[in-house]
Amino acid sequence: MRVTVIGNCQSAGLASCLSTMVAGLQVTARGPGTPIELLGLAESNDWVLLQGKQSAVPPALAERVITWPRLIFAGFHPDAVYVRAGGGQAPSPLGQWHSALTLLGWMAERSVAETLRLFRSEVFERARYFGIWESSRQSLLAEGDAAGLSIDGAFETWSSGGCFMHSPNHPHLTAIAEVARALLPRLGLIARSLHPERFLVDDLAQYVALPVYPDIGLRLGIKGDYTFKLPTRSWRGVQHAELIALDEMIERSFAALETVSRDVIDCARFSTPVWQALARDLPSLVATPLPKTGGNPYRGLPAHQYWRQAMTETPGPEVDPVIAAPFHITPRTAIATAGSCFAQHIARTLKQAGFNHMVAEPPPPELTPAQIEAGHWGSFSARYGNIYSARQMVQLVERAEGRFRPADAPWQRPDGRWVDPFRPQIDAGGFATRAEVIEARRPHLQAVRRMLRRVEVFVFTLGLTEAWRAKADGAVFPLAPGVVAGAMDEAAYEFVNFTTAEVLADLRAFRAALRAVNPGAKLVLTVSPVPLVATYEARHVLVSTVASKSILRAAAEEFCREDPECWYFPSYEIVTGSQARGTSFGPDLREVNEATVARVMALFLRHAALAPPTEVPRHNAPAIADAETAELFEVLCDEEKLAG
After folding, report:
1. HSE on the CB side for 378, CA within 13 Å?
2. What is the pLDDT of residue 456?
3. Exposed / middle / buried, residue 547 (Cβ in 10 Å: 0-12, 13-18, 19+)
4. At a CB cut-off of 8 Å and minimum separation 6, what does 617 contact?
5. Would you tell me which CATH number, out of the four given (3.40.50.12080, 3.90.1210.10, 2.60.40.1180, 3.60.21.10), belongs to the domain 2-75+130-205?
6. Global pTM?
């Protein structure tokens, strides 16, 4: 079969992908041609793959022509523009691209230092850079629809990996390969490999690669910088990619532009009202130094960094303190959850919204629905129950990996049944014998091991700093001995209230243990907004609650600051912040109500998910009249037993 691919600079990549995917396929690539040339190509090929519209194709040959979309997307690089000078392109160190803000500074005869001051969030906001992502996405999807290839799902996959464009018209080879895969059924071909990007060199990577500016990356949930890559050069078989910083890019751009007259410069963007206003206000914009050069460092910050705009003037339900996620999830991402009672809300919402909430310890097939519910099968990624403290989480991993064997034997309940002291309420019926408890631990810890090795995103909700531990080996329990089982013996057990330093050390130990078996795992850390049921400290429970949550929040802050692969999600702030105006809790002032849980999870999915559902499932609150429906909203909460 003979195929010719016609299109822009992306056509060679598509031809290479098809040739690699299908054995014996003869594929050539060429640029756009005239109707007469297209007629000749259609007559001499089995198929012609034409990029863009088919308007130039003779009707008689339309059945042998297949269209494919132009992959043009400016969402990562909204500052990139085409500039003409007279009858050709204006010279630039960035090849066919110019920085619009740099051009604005040059046209006004401003210095490099003054032009540098335009590269800040306030100017990006005024230039509408933060809105280009969505409009560019819609244009790209429309391009796919026009070619008969829906790329909605593909766009989600590309975005999940970060920036997938070298520049607005140069996609990564992974995106071009996706188009090639989508064309195979229309060509009637079978591939020997569906992933040609694994074997081919990304030819478009040799040209200019533009950076995602830091303030733009922050909005998109990816790390940005100001490093520009110039076209790659080869010398004696060694490739050399020259990298320049923002100030050098401006200097080189100014030098290149000085070879033409300002009178012949033509940039379509500069004729819009937005950019005309920028040009008019340029004197004040370049007179405002960047924070590092002096002046008021708080001037020109984004609206979400000011209390008045972000809180006072924003309706409570619309306050969104998340800003951006450093990574994203898709329905295929393996997500595990653990932590305090509030973590169960996260797990339930992920499942109901169609995301891949891991259950490494599924119920045995012989169990009835009632037994599954009583045993809390599926409520957790493994049947570990509530994990209130970071120390408890570390010890669970150590136990699963065989590095920690606690001395405590099973505890007996007042009714004669036995429980596992490390998950005392995981099964409502308990166990008949001590041996059954010990035997049930083996498959449970194996499930934890599987979960740790397969998880891609681990969501851990910190709940408490107060705990009880065994004096003999430091083993920490979710409940004190004597609350639901066992007996308090002050010679064997002691109360502990972990400090910020101890919580931080435990989080680091957990991260090290997880990454040792799963280097690519990412972490989402939250702090439960649920107050303490009771405190063992000799003080008011409100004071202990604030102290405990403050310690956890401070540890989480320091931990996530040092680890770019960890995201702190502010569920605590969403529930307890002043914007909630005291409406987050039920009549007991402790249980988070249905509307607030839905709000928390809607924000989580809005920022974390590349394809969030149109509406987050709303749980049913325990306070509603329908008892059967209310039961669906209940969670296993060991701590409730402390109230007696």
Report:
1. 16
2. 94
3. middle
4. 349, 352, 353, 598
5. 3.40.50.12080
6. 0.57
